[in-house]
């Protein structure tokens, strides 16, 4: 596979991965115990209250740390570049190998970082749980 074909493949793979990631991840949500309040208001109102509490939490508590994505991307690029340089040196093109490896590693690190950030922080979960509790719900965990 030539360098330009490989680069095009990497770009297509990266864009496809990001699209799948954005479409497939709705994120963790609180699980509500079916107490009297939940039975009284029903699932539609409970869903609205969950969304309201999540929006309120976003104003006061960071849901995730943006540096996680940046750090994973940098680590991926560095390790991918090193692996690519070794592979390229064996084949006679350390520079091209390093560039391809860095691009591949950065993409993998970026996607890994996005997966890590899909999990809300404990403080965010606690905020949402407390908000729901003050509205009469009983959160028993997150899924």
**Main sheet specs:** 2 strands, antiparallel
Strand order of the largest sheet: 1-2
Uncertain runs are: 18-24
How do the helices and strands follow one another from N- to C-terminus?
Answer: HEHHHHE
Taking all Cα atoms into account, the compactness measure Rg is 22 Å
Mean pLDDT: 76
**Which structural class should the secondary elements be placed in?**
mainly alpha
The tally of structural domains comes to 2
Per DSSP, the total helix count is 5
Q: What separation lies between the terminal Cα atoms? A: 43 Å
- What share of the residues lie within helices? over 70%
What does the overall shape look like? rod-shaped
Strand content: under 5%
Beta strand count:
2
Q: What can you see in these coordinates?
A:
The longest helix has 26 residues, at 66-91. This protein has helices at 3-24, 36-60, 66-91, 94-117, 122-134, and strands spanning 30-32, 139-142. The protein is rod-shaped. It has five helices and two strands; from the N terminus they run αβααααβ. It folds into two domains: 38-63 and 122-143; 65-119, no CATH class. It has 143 residues and is mainly alpha-helical. The chain is 77% helix and 5% strand. Strands 1-2 form a two-stranded antiparallel ribbon. Helix 1 packs parallel to helix 4 (94-117).
